[in-house]
Design goal:
By secondary structure, the chain is mainly alpha-helical. It has one domain (2-69). Helix content is 84%, strand content 0%. It has 5 helices and no strands. Helix 1 crosses helix 5 (52-72), helix 2 packs antiparallel against helix 3 and helix 2 crosses helix 5 (52-72). The protein is globular and about 35 Å long.
Length: 75
Amino acid sequence: MTEDRLQTLLHSEPYWTARAMREQGSRFYRALGEALEAADLANRRRIYEGWTAELWDFYQRGLRLEEAERASGAG
């Protein structure tokens, strides 16, 4: 299951995950979200591999943020 999640994260756009981390995370996760958004693919992989479970949670939150923004017509 972790490998499936890792592959999903690697193939997703990091914007919404990083945004959820910046908006809803602790200071640590806000900084990690900034790093995620700035990272190239190799470094994103390192971040995702080290924090798969935590980033999966923020990935799901990001999907909800994206859906809410689309529903509101803002995106």
